[in-house]
């Protein structure tokens, strides 16, 4: 939190208010007094000139002349003797022809008045027969006050001329300027004193407030160790007391809020479900890490740079912004959709966002594995039903035929052989299902002992040679029969695995084909490989060959009596031995199964074979 700037603090505002009040008051007083002084000076000037003109008898004397022009010398002598030294103003007499016939300034005598004086003022006075005045500035930039008085002849009663008086206003202007400077200096001194006194007074008022502000600023940053000093019992002191009382409660409340916030952030960060909060216009307010991973949004992209339509709304029309916003009004909504080879379940509903008003909260859940499991369960039930239905139908049909009678002994024996074969088929299927169930529920009983896996491979090899010869196939053992490869394994279960894989190779390899069995030690493991040059498996089928009831060629597999469970059982048995199995195959070029088992690193285990 930043402290208030000086220009916006209460102290400076109070000082500024005092400053403005004094400034306005001094300005008004100064303007008023200066105007009064100037008016007084001009009034005094006008009164002095009026008194001089009237009391000296100048107008009366000039009115006694019938013709001013004929009496020019007498009038000039009169002005020179009586007014040249008595008045500082310039007095001139102008006849009706607007010619200066006499003046205290002899340099302008016999000069046309229009070239020197205000001709308009002279004309107005002659026509109105009343004294008038005007202000002009001469060509020499001298400010002048003009006074013009009419001269009315006593004999004719008509205007014979005017008395034109010019007064230099320089002294009055200088006095006004000097007064203005005095007032400005006085105003500045008064304003400086006002600012100093205002600051002192404001500081006395705002100092306790600043203490409160500093303490509250520390509290807002999370520092609750400082208390507001209480130095008075006035309103500010009561405010400080209340802050101190609030401090403890606020500290506890913030600790609780921080704890809840930390919990919420941890939950949102590590929750497996994706969470997205958006506004009504599609702006993403929050997106957690799980949602980023699901939608492929990198950490370098902030939530504010995301747009709902670009990350989720474009996937399906059911997830468009308008649809989501409208559906959220009616209540919570859920749907499933596929995206990037994954299946997601989305649920959303309306929420209230702190800064953006109404919004939508969207929860994403990756249900790919669950969907696969459900699909597998459906397929499993369908496959089991089909596998049992086929032999049962065969058994029932042949049984009914035998019960009807009329079948010769040879045909009857053939039917009984078929019934026996189908019964064996169902028995194998049920047996495999029971074994899978035991493996799934960890109920299989294991008899794992340390032994030489080479001996087991030799036994399996010898058992499968007659079966391979029936199809005129060549089964070859590439491993060294004298090599000892000691592994901890369940002999019966692992023999089941090897025989099942070799049997598959025999089934899916044409007559005259080749099958190879090998075992190679590589570091701390042994790799057992069964290879053939049979039909092979396509790339599309390879990822699914260990699924239950999955058959690459369903028609051929059923014809050969395959249930589609052998490889699934084999994989689980191998994994129980902490091993792995993988397949390498190319359609039409054969298949290689690779079983990897850890070797026993020491001897001394009980029941060693």
Helix content: 40-55%
Mean pLDDT comes to 79
| Helix-and-strand structural type | alpha+beta
Please report the total strand number as a whole number: 17
The general outline is: rod-shaped
**How are the strands of the largest sheet arranged?**
2-1-5-4-3
Q: How big a fraction of the residues is strand?
A: 15-25%
Uncertain residue segments: 1-7, 555-561, 605-609
Task: Count every helix, treating DSSP H or I runs of 4 or more residues as helices.
Answer: 15
Q: Please give the largest β-sheet.
A: 5 strands, antiparallel
How are the elements arranged and paired?
Blueprint: H1 10-55, H2 58-63, H3 72-82, E1 90-95, E2 100-103, H4 119-128, E3 132-137, E4 143-152, E5 159-168, H5 170-220, H6 235-270, E6 274-279, E7 284-287, H7 289-295, H8 308-313, H9 321-330, E8 333-339, E9 342-353, E10 357-366, H10 368-404, H11 409-440, E11 448-452, H12 453-470, E12 474-477, E13 486-490, H13 491-507, E14 514-522, E15 525-532, H14 554-559, H15 566-576, E16 580-586, E17 590-598
Parallel strand pairs: 12-14
Antiparallel strand pairs: 1-2, 1-5, 3-4, 4-5, 6-7, 6-10, 8-9, 9-10, 11-13, 14-15, 15-17, 16-17
Question: What is the gist of this entry?
Answer:
By secondary structure, the chain is an alpha+beta fold. It has helices at residues 10-55, 58-63, 72-82, 119-128, 170-220, 235-270, 289-295, 308-313, 321-330, 368-404, 409-440, 453-470, 491-507, 554-559, 566-576, and strands at 90-95, 100-103, 132-137, 143-152, 159-168, 274-279, 284-287, 333-339, 342-353, 357-366, 448-452, 474-477, 486-490, 514-522, 525-532, 580-586, 590-598.
């Amino acid at each position: 939190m930043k402290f208030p700037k000086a220009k916006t603090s209460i102290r400076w505002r109070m000082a500024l208010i005092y400053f403005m009040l004094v400034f306005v008051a001094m300005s008004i007083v100064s303007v008023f007094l200066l105007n009064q002084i100037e008016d007084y000076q001009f009034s005094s000037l006008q009164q002095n000139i009026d008194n001089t003109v009237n009391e000296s008898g100048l107008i009366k004397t000039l009115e006694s002349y019938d013709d001013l022009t004929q009496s020019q010398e007498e009038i000039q002598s009169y002005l020179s003797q009586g007014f040249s030294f008595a008045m500082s103003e310039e007095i001139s007499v102008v006849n009706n022809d607007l010619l200066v016939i006499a003046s205290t300034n002899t340099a302008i005598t016999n000069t046309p008045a229009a070239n020197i004086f205000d001709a308009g003022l002279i004309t107005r006075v002659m026509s109105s027969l009343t004294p008038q005045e005007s202000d002009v500035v001469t060509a020499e930039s001298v400010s002048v006050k003009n006074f013009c008085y009419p001269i009315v002849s006593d004999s004719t009663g008509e205007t014979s001329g005017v008395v034109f008086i010019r007064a230099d206003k320089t002294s009055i202007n200088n006095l006004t300027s000097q007064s203005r400077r005095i007032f400005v200096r006085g105003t500045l001194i008064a304003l400086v004193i006002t600012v100093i006194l205002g600051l002192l007074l404001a500081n006395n008022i705002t100092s306790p407030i600043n203490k409160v502000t500093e303490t509250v600023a520390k509290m807002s940053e999370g520092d609750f160790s400082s208390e507001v000093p209480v130095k008075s019992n006035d309103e500010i002191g009561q405010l400080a007391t209340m802050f101190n009382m609030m401090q403890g409660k606020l500290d506890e409340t913030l600790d609780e809020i921080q704890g809840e916030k930390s919990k919420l952030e941890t939950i949102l960060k590590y929750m497996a479900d994706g969470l997205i909060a958006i506004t009504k216009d599609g702006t993403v307010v929050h997106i957690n890490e799980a949602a980023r991973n699901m939608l492929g949004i990198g950490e370098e992209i902030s939530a504010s740079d995301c747009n709902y339509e670009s990350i989720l709304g474009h996937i399906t029309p059911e997830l468009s912004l308008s649809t989501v916003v409208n559906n959220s009004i009616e209540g919570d909504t859920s749907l499933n959709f596929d995206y990037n080879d994954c299946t997601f379940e989305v649920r959303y509903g309306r929420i209230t966002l702190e800064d953006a008003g109404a919004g939508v909260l969207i929860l994403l859940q990756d249900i790919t594995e669950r969907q696969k499991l459900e699909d597998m369960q459906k397929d499993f039930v369908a496959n089991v039903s089909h596998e049992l239905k086929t032999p049962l139908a065969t058994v029932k049909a042949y049984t009914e035929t035998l019960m009807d009678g009329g079948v010769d002994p040879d045909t009857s024996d053939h039917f009984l052989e078929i019934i026996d074969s189908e019964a064996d088929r169902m028995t194998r299927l049920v047996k495999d299902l029971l074994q899978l169930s035991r493996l799934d529920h960890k109920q299989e009983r294991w008899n794992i002992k340390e032994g030489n896996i080479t001996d087991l491979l030799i036994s399996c090899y010898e058992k499968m040679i007659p079966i391979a010869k029936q199809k005129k196939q060549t089964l070859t053992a590439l491993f060294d029969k004298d090599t000892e490869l000691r592994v901890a394994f369940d002999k019966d279960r692992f023999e089941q695995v090897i025989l099942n894989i070799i049997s598959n190779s025999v089934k899916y390899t044409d007559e005259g084909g080749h099958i190879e069995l090998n075992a190679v030690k590589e570091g701390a493991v042994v790799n057992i490989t069964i290879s053939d040059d049979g039909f092979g498996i396509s790339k599309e089928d390879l990822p699914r060959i260990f699924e239950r009831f999955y058959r690459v060629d369903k028609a051929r597999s059923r014809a050969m009596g395959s249930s589609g469970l052998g490889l699934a059982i084999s994989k689980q048995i191998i994994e129980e031995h902490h091993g792995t199995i993988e397949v390498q195959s190319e359609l039409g070029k054969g298949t290689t199964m690779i079983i990897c088992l850890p070797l026993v690193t020491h001897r001394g285990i009980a029941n060693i074979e």
